[in-house]
Fold this protein.
Amino acid sequence: MRINQDTVLQGIRATLVPYTPAHVPRYHAWMQSEELQRLTASEPLSLEQEYEMQRSWRDDADKCTFIVLDTERWSGQARGEEDCMVGDVNLFLTDTEDPTLGEIEIMIAEPSYRGRGFGKEATLMMMSYGVTDLGITKFEAKIGQENEASICMFKKLHFKEVAVNSVFQEVTLRLDVSDEEKRWLLDQTSHVEKKTYSEVKQPAGEPET
């Protein structure tokens, strides 16, 4: 989705930036992990296939993807973005009959960043962006039954369990964004700064002057 290709959402712990070719090698390395393949129900891809996937996610109108960075490491600009990557967050607008429904996915790929609030903040930021910029009024999350931490996090964000697929061992959670939920969501993300990617991006490894 090209609508977010020049958008940065900077939070306290997490910063969301568009998924670019520069991020692909680190992302590809993550996805060699059998644990992440299992948790994300993904098959390993070659590096060239990963580049093709990045182009698809950028160009397809039904996919919105951000890379999750460590704000503290990234904001000093002393490191390239690839060294600050901790995961990704996605919205899929795949229901052609209901363009206001978004399926949300969050992956904190770096084990040392799990359980520290990065996933929660990144998810809230993506949800807020979905509501304010993409017209989303309903969210769904499909999570493997074994991923108890992710299920628990989404329930803390007011999602309700609506279905269990025993064949795929998957739980579906849902949140309808009422006026009250929207106010809560915007309040939870009131600290987030929206910036222009082309203005804040620095070449890899080049400190800000």
Notes: Helices lie at 24-30, 34-40, 47-59, 71-75, 118-133, 148-156, 179-188, 197-200. Confidence is low (pLDDT under 50) at residues 204-209. Residues 6 and 197 are 5 Å apart (CA to CA).
